[in-house]
Every structure is written in C-alpha cells, then in structure tokens.
Amino acid sequence: MISLDPIVPEDYDRLKPYFRNQRYRLCIYSLPSLLSWANEAYHPRAAVIDGCLVLAAKFIREPSKDHLILPICPERESPPEEVYRLAQETGYASVWFVPEDYIERYGKSVCERWFTIHPQSEYDDYVYSRDDLTFLKGRKYAKKRNLIAQFQKTHVQTGEVDFEPIEAASIPECLSFLDLWCEERNCRSYTSDDLECEKQALINLLTHIHRYEVKGRVLRIRGEVVALGVAADLTADMGVLHFEKAFARYKGLYQFFDRHCAEQLFAGCSWINKESDMGVANLAKAKKSYYPAMRIRSYELRVKRPSERGQA
C-alpha cells in the first residue's frame, strides 16, 4: 500500500511545478484551494507516483468521505485504468471532482469498466465569460447596472471609495471584516460542513496569500474594508474567484465590486470560475443571476470490486 502524506502551506513551492499545464476546470484543482481548506477535520494528502501528483482528502470525523481527486500530471493525463490502479494502491474507494469532459474524452463505457459514475451536482462549478462580468451588456444585466449606478452615485461620486490590492499590512483588517461579515450573514446558522469550513479556508488563504501567489483586492468606504476578493489561476485561459465577500448593508456594493474583480483580478483570462453552490438554494440563485456561460459538471467515480467488473 502506498502512503500519502499530509501537505501544508510550506509545501506550496514543492508542489507548484506539478500544476504547470493544469487542465481540469473544476475549482478544486487550484493548489491554493487544496491547501487552504485544510482544518482539524479535513487533511489534504499527497504523494508523487510515476511523475504525477496524487492527491487525496482525509476526513478525520467522517472517513466514509475520504477520496482521491484526479492525478495532476504536467506532461500527460492519467487514463481511467491508471486512476483505478492508483486508487487500489493507495487504499481509496472513490475519486471525487472528476470533470465531465474527462469522462467524455475516454468514454463512459471505458470509465465504467473500472468505476461506477455518480453525479456530484452540488459541486458543479459556474463559469462566466470575463467580458460578460466586466461590461454587463444587454437587458439581462440591466438590474445589475442599475444597482451599480446607485452605488456609484451614493459612494463613488462622493469620494468615499478606495481600492487596493491585499497586502500584508491589510490582512488584519481583512480578518476583522470577515468576522463582521459572518455576523451579518449569521454564518453559524448553516449546517453544511462546507459552509462551516469556508471562513477558516479564507483565513488560511489570507494568511498565506503571498506564498500562494494569488491575487486579492479590497474595497474601502471611508477607510473601512467593506469587500474583498481573492482569485487564482486555474487553467491556461481560466481563473477562479475563490472568495468574494461584501457587506449587504451597502446597496449595490456587491455588484459594483464583482465587476471590479472581473476587471482587476482576471487580466489575460477568458473565463472566470466562481465555484459551486454546494447545494445552497440562495447561493445557486445568486450565481444564476449572472448568467453563467457554462457549468462544469462534477462526478464521483467509485471503484468497482473485482466481482463487479465482470469480464471487463
């Protein structure tokens, strides 16, 4: 049995070369994201096998959720038979976050020789055209433009608004903003493990923001941080907006800041991945209101036992 070892922020530089030419369009395949979501209940693990970075999630309290993700190989892709072998050798029963186009490339019938295929609709990512989010053209974005105009009239034209990149000096203010944002949104009322862990993931990311080479922006009103966004590269033409938070008490702030993030954090990208809705209805409604250009479907591949594989 091959052992996978825990990975920590200090491993970023060592792991980064494996993400060169990263091809998968689901947000989980961002190295900063993989490292940032670590907490007392969830530990990311990794090993280098045959030139590929094999990554796993270990859940301390819910071992039934332990899983691999697809191997990260700079020069090639692991086909289903190889992924099956790696799952066998590392002792994992399933592979999560398998993009739909991976299954399409190899064919459903080929994948089903080794795995049973199960949708993970709560982890389907929303992807938008950067131009759509930057320019907000057309009737469908009229409400967004109106809210932006109201915010500009109330706060921008009065000289109250400032923007800046997230720097080391502003991180304590960002963390204080996050506490206040959670109070405003009553974060503790959520029961989903993913939502409970989100605050800690953002704290982890902010703490190591320069190590991870991610980009961040804050917006201030009268000197107070009232919105922040953090983004990273994902593929050659797609970036991922890992976090975007804004106080609800300022009408039009979110819409104004979202456009600012599209302009400032995704230069050189054609597409912006805004992650999944995690099955949360209000979050799904908000993401759909920006008219995604595509959804990146996520699937779980469960390893078949030899008796299930028959003659395949």
TrEMBL record:
Domain Phosphatidylglycerol lysyltransferase C-terminal positions: 71-299
Superkingdom to which the source organism belongs: Bacteria
Pfam families with a match to the protein in the record: LPG_synthase_C
Gene3D superfamilies the UniProt entry points to: 3.40.630.30
InterPro entries: Acyl_CoA_acyltransferase, LPG_synthase_C, UCP018688
Organism: Desulfatirhabdium butyrativorans
Coiled coil: none
Protein name: DUF2156 domain-containing protein
